[in-house]
Amino acid sequence: MKDNLQKFMFEHAGVRGELVELPNTWREILSHQTYPKAVQTILGELLAASALLSANLKFNGTMIMQIHGDGPVRLLVVECDAQLRLRATAKLAPDVEIADDASLSDLVHQNGQGRFVITLDPNDKMPGQQAYQGIVPLDGESIATVIENYMMRSEQLDTKLWLAADSEVTRGLLLQKLPKIGGTESSVEDETEAWNRAVILGSTVKQQELLDTDIDTLMNRLFWEETLRVFELQHPEFHCNCTREKVGNMLKMLGEEEIKSAIAELDKLDINCDFCGKHYSFDQVDCAQLFVASTLVDGVITPSGSKH
Hints:
The protein is an alpha+beta fold. About 35% of the residues lie in helices and about 25% in strands. The relative contact order is 0.16.
């Protein structure tokens, strides 16, 4: 089964929709990390939501979704770029035991300090341009409601999401009410009725049904009475953009004294990418070059025997 994302629009209503399924990307992510079942579920749901939201962005860059937690899960990160290339990871507190049925609040919002962050990081920044970042308190009992509330608060867009994930696949459905365009004949009442009808139809899908059913079947099953305009199928995929240069840059940010101290204690620094598991090793010479080279590229030299 391929990873698929299907966009569609209701012909006679200001509503757009998307369905996504990510069996291959999701299994690739899980092959690099082992997560408790409850963490696996919310990370998988965040992954599906990221693909759904990114597909509507007219934006040459990467959308980064993060949940910063104050419970046993300290951080969830999902990245999706303009080509629908995705990666994801989670950071847990040390030595925690997490029940299979732990809720989102149990995992990341135990003391009410959880935060949801969306960052839009353009590839072609102008001089001095910063990435756009929206940060809000964690408002909702599920990944879907957290994002719905964010979209209404920050973008003023009525959005509904249905998400599901297990160890084999993550799938999601998005519906969004399109802004009213000046000069259109439909009334506010008609648009509201059309939106409510679409949401009612979407709400008939069950979580297990999402997990068990391919998106083509789901679309036909949910909206068989509606006239839909269906767009070309897209194929998201896993991609990690880590490089030795980026890891070296991260080490450089820690400062020369801290790196010297770590090298003196450990002899070399071994670092694995949290997203893809790729291994990078920096010995004493490598680390010294980081701080004397004229450019970072000059200072990061790939050793012939690096492990992957």
